[in-house]
Write a structure and sequence with these properties.
CATH superfamily of the largest domain: Glutaredoxin
Radius of gyration: 18 Å
Number of domains: 2
Protein name: Glutaredoxin domain-containing protein
CATH class of the largest domain: Alpha Beta
Largest sheet: 4 strands, mixed
Keywords: Membrane, Signal, Transmembrane, Transmembrane helix
Order of helices and strands: HHHEHEHEEH
CATH topology of the largest domain: Glutaredoxin
Helix content: 55-70%
Organism: Streptomyces kurssanovii
């Protein structure tokens, strides 16, 4: 659980330090702008921008019932962030599994990626797709609706 918050925490600490340094140098405007940038970086790298994660078993059960894809992801992954942002509001319709919180999810990803935890790995109808194009994921979601 702590591992998911490591990068956002580092962004906040570094940003605070750099902003304080700028403020002491007599540049409060630059300090505020710098702090804002680091707060935004912490926000987009945090698990808070993702829909609520389910366990792998539960997500796969739900997917079998409603046909929606399952996305295996981890905090701090740039490709996961790209997928999440490009899906927009539709991201909430997918089933998300944080592999750092769910050992079964991490095992499922390793099983299809030669032992690597390569994310995002999207399962559509039981078939894995590693780092798919967000447009393709939206199409799959439209087909399941």
């Amino acid at each position: 659980m702590m591992r998911a918050w490591l990068l956002p925490t580092l962004f906040l600490l570094c940003g605070s330090f750099l902003a304080a340094e700028r403020a002491f140098d007599g540049s409060p405007g630059a300090a505020a702008a710098l702090l804002l940038v680091f707060v935004l970086l912490a926000g987009v790298s945090s698990p808070l921008i993702y829909p609520r994660s389910a366990g792998a078993v539960e997500a796969q059960r739900r997917s079998a019932l409603d046909g929606r894809p399952v996305v295996f992801w981890r905090p701090g992954c740039v490709y996961c962030l790209r997928l999440r942002i490009r899906l927009g509001r539709r991201a909430g319709q997918l089933h998300w599994v944080d592999i750092w919180r769910d050992p079964a999810g991490a095992a499922a990803v390793r099983a299809v990626n030669d032992g690597n935890e390569t994310v995002p790995t999207v399962f559509v109808a039981g078939r894995p797709h590693v780092n798919p194009d967000p447009r393709w994921v939206r199409e799959q979601l439209s087909r399941s609706a």
